[in-house]
Known about the structure:
Layout: H1 2-32, H2 39-57, E1 60-69, E2 75-81, H3 82-87, H4 89-97, H5 99-121, H6 131-153, E3 169-171, H7 172-175, E4 184-186, H8 187-209, H9 211-221, H10 223-228, H11 233-255, H12 265-280, H13 285-302, H14 305-310, H15 314-329
Antiparallel strand pairs: 1-2, 3-4
Amino acid sequence: MDAILLQVLNGLDKGSAYALIALGLTLIFGTLGVVNFAHGAIFMIGAFCAVTLSRILSLSFETIDPTKVDFLGNPATIKTPYVEAWFGPEFGGALIDWAVPLAILFSIPIMIAVGFIMERGLIKHFYKRPHADQILVTFGLAIVLQEVIKYFYGANPISTPAPEVFKGSFDFGAMFGFDPNVIIYPYWRMVYFLFAAVVIGAVFSFLRFTTFGMVVRAGMADRETVGLLGIDIDRRFTIMFGLAAAVAGMAGVMYAPILSPNYHMGMDFLVLSFVVVVVGGMGSLPGAVAAGFLLGVLESFASMNEIKSIIPGIDQIIIYVVAIIILLTRPRGLLGKRGVMEE
């Protein structure tokens, strides 16, 4: 029982990332009909927003401390971050420590701008082109973006720590009556799961309970009729592209302490998240979220040594095996609309 609970917990944070990226992919496909293979790169850019803000807040200047000497006997130099000099050591230190959560505010306008530029500058020209053309052009854009990140940040992963208060782990085992130190789960992974739940709830509430969201959902169902009512549905869909980019960017920001950002992390998550979209159902927002968590948990169980000893390498292919089974038995996906992907 303790092993089962531990694997469920381990699958939640990765499933949260899958669900958030797949949610943005599904929003774009459902509104614009575009298969956006550059969406994983947006997740990567979000992670590097956290890296960038952390570096900005850590910028420091050097002063000489005559009371201390280095190993050569020279007066020692002390590095003092500018934010500590401006706001005091306590508040300035807190800003540096909380760089990752603060990067959410830093990333939102950047990601919305990136989404607008991508949609208006490139993707709008491929609305009426075949999905194969959309995949090729957005995949090429993803490669360009990851090479830009590699040029400016290097090829090595960059450690981006969580705030000090969230370091360490929570003993779930003791809470459920198991032996202490049996089921240990990092605090930040719990934070990430809660963050994902809040963002997913906010997106669904926005689409369901706001006039803007209702128009968007109507446009997803029948774009032509909504346009005939005099509503500029294209403009609203462009805004949704920016919001989808913001969701993926925030997911990347909060995932930075879990997986040190690197230039190829977008591709790593994109392929898996696209499989999540197919399993959940193309264009189905609930399907994307449900499949994200389901496949995250399945991948966690498949990584158990007991399972890998029976089927070696199953942890690397379990998601694709599930996708094949779903496509063979239910081509429209778990919660997809009838007729989608079934022609």
